[in-house]
Specification:
The protein is built from 13 helices and no strands. The relative contact order is 0.06. With 252 residues, it is mainly alpha-helical.
Length: 252
């Protein structure tokens, strides 16, 4: 097999692996990525993509140590610019955070943010994950600063901003800053885009927050607004229905 054929086959296997991964078939995805990596004569870019993708699939299978090894191999790949390794830094950090190795995770996220050429989307994800790791370390005030960075980013998507606001609200709740927490939910609810799941989550959490302030009528209204959203996931709908029923029962 000549080099061109090797490259084509390796890319085809990476594509097949990604297709399996999108369908939740992680074992099959890993097998494709391993076959791609075993092909001789392919370039470092393909190997980096295969390693990062295999790491993600292994993480979904709960094989976290193997996943980290894949990300490390991708990061160490010679001849590949750092911006193409940004995903490996991000995913290594996410995996380390799952293992509660938050200090190590923060170093990975810092490395990504410092990478020249990293996309705005990658930076937004890194800052959101940094916030979560800082909060897990008890550094809630620093965590909130990182969530605010994402919200202020021009490059961040509405989904990323909503995720950051919901994460910020969670930690404001832990700090007993109820009014600031509610303001975060209101920002998500007011977004001029269709973010059904995020808005439903914001409405349910706002309901719980205002109920804690004794505003039962406002809380019930929040739950009813969440239930009125089209396409609310079943588990989210169930949570809203239960919370609403509990408040109505208390009022009777």
């Amino acid at each position: 097999m000549n080099t061109r054929d090797s490259v084509d086959e390796a890319w085809a296997l990476v594509g097949e692996g990604l297709s399996h991964a999108l369908r939740g078939r992680s074992e099959e995805a890993v097998a494709c990525f391993e076959r791609s990596l075993a092909i001789e004569g392919t370039d470092a870019e393909i190997k980096t993509m295969a390693l990062e993708s295999m790491g993600i699939a292994l993480r979904h299978l709960g094989r976290l140590a193997e996943a980290i090894e894949c990300f490390d191999r991708a990061i160490a790949m010679e001849g590949v610019p750092d911006e193409e390794k940004a995903g490996a830094f991000l995913n290594k950090g996410v995996t380390l955070a799952q293992l509660e190795r938050h200090e190590d995770a923060l170093r990975c996220f810092d490395r990504l943010v410092a990478t020249q050429g990293a996309s705005g989307d990658e930076r937004a994800s890194a800052w959101t994950k940094m916030g979560a790791s800082l909060a897990a370390l008890g550094r809630s005030h620093e965590a909130i600063e990182y969530f605010d960075r994402v919200v202020a980013m021009k490059e961040a998507t509405d989904e990323e901003k909503a995720e950051a606001l919901l994460s910020k609200a969670e930690h404001l709740r832990q700090l007993q800053r109820r009014r600031d927490e509610i303001e975060c939910y209101d920002q998500v609810i007011a977004m001029e885009v269709e973010l059904t799941e995020e808005k439903a989550c914001a409405l349910i959490n706002k309901g719980a927050a205002v109920a804690g302030l004794g505003r039962t009528h406002d809380a019930i209204e929040c739950y009813e607004r969440a239930l009125a959203l089209p396409g609310v996931p079943p588990e989210t709908r169930h949570a809203a229905e239960e919370a609403r029923a509990e408040l109505l029962e208390q009022n009777n």
